[in-house]
Amino acid sequence: MKPQDSAIVITGSSRGIGLGLTSIMLERGWHVFGCSRGPSEVKHERYQHFEIDVADEKGVVRLFGGVRKSGKPLYAVLNNAGTASMNHVLTTPFDTMKKLFAVNVFGTMLCSREGAKLMLRHKMGRIINFGSVAVPYSLEGEAVYTASKSAVEAYTKVLAREMGEHGITANSVSPNPVKTDLIAGVPVEKMTRLINRQSIKRYGEFEDVLRVVDFLLDPENTFVTGQVIYLGGP
User: Fold this and answer.
1) Does the record bear Oxidoreductase in its keywords (predicted)?
2) Between β-strands 228-230 and 7-11, what pairing exists: parallel, antiparallel or unpaired?
């Protein structure tokens, strides 16, 4: 598919990695449909923003309904939206548990489901979910967050199996710490300990994430699916 004729959905598009991906894809000519719980600073003739919560089914259906009404075939869904919280297992409020799973897991599932429905029309597509190195590291103080991202990884593998015969690939990108709002409140000492556990001991950069996303988006890359790619090395 040519970018100028096709659509990409990017969730969590108003800041951080999502904003960076949105800007790059617009530069490349894609029609981008983004979403976040608040407004976006992106103003572009090929960008349409939806103020929704990805955990709200009606909002997600409205987002993908907008893609359908545009007449542009949907090529990819980048499930970037996510949230985190540092809590000991004994002191994690139930509301926090529900929020983490609602956004990280159910949001990913809803957007993957609705996106795949549109991709089935032309038997081609790319679904890229976002996991975390918290899973292989079993990070202390992040049990619920880690569990939610583990669920995303498992879901991605099953999604890949069910969609493979339809020309749709599904993979997960699991970044190491990248300096975004998601880790802004994490103590520096904790981040240093985490980075020291990596094979490559440095913070991730947006460009590191982009290179993996580009690899998975490549129209010629039709045989890589059901994979979890950890940046920095687990």
Assistant:
1) yes
2) unpaired
| CB-count burial class (<10 Å; 0-12, 13-18, 19+) for 83 | middle
Q: Find out whether 31 and 7 touch, Cβ atoms under 8 Å.
A: yes
What domain count does the chain have? 1
User: Between vectors from CA 141 to CA 137 and to CA 147, what angle results, nearest 5°?
Assistant: 60
Q: Could you report the per-residue pLDDT of 33-48, keeping only the tens digit for each? A: 999 999 999 999 999 9
- The sheet carrying 31-36 orders its strands as 47-51, 31-36, 7-11, 74-79, 125-130, 168-174, 228-230
Is 183's pLDDT higher than 80? Answer: no
- We report the CATH number of the domain holding residue 70 as 3.40.50.720
Is residue 165 within 8 Å of 225, Cβ to Cβ?
no
Q: Tell me the β-bridge partners of 31.
A: 7
Q: For 214-228, write each residue's pLDDT tens digit.
A: 999 999 999 999 999
Q: CB of 80 within 8 A of CB of 21? A: yes
pTM of the model: 0.95
Nearest to 187 by CA among 177, 175, 176: 177
